[in-house]
Amino acid sequence: MVETVVIVLVLLAALVVLRGVMLARSRGSVPCRLRVGDRGWQSGVARYADGELHWIPLVGVRLRPRHAIARRGLVVSARREIDGGLFAVDFEGSTRGISLAMSADALTGFLAWLESAPPSAYLDVA
Questions:
Q1: What is the pTM of this model?
Q2: Residue 27 — pLDDT band, cuts 50, 70, 90?
Q3: 3-class SS at 88?
Q4: Cβ(16)–Cβ(63) under 8 Å?
Q5: Which of 3, 19, 68, 69 could form a disulfide with 53 if both were Cys (CB 3.0 to 4.6 A apart)?
Q6: In sequence order, what E strands does 1-126 have?
């Protein structure tokens, strides 16, 4: 009985790790970190989909995005460099209290995605 439980737990752990690797390598995804409020940074993957940025944590069993950040009304309040060559972006407005950290290349793509919004969208990039 104990061996069966151990085997099941090992298989579940392997599935969680495999999910994270597949997310990180999937086409159209960007590795980034997310921070909500004063909590610590969480590693994950961001995907652009239908005017939203979907953030999915690397470790977890949920297949759905944990956060969906809408491009419409998104206000970038600050950009700064943090450890490891990552750049953090802070938001105001409807996404107040959320920060994203990503590489310089990913940040350039993110800002281009913001600026390419339809003319009817309200944007403010710091």
A1: 0.70
A2: low
A3: strand
A4: no
A5: 69
A6: 29-36, 42-49, 52-57, 67-70, 74-81, 87-93, 98-102, 124-125
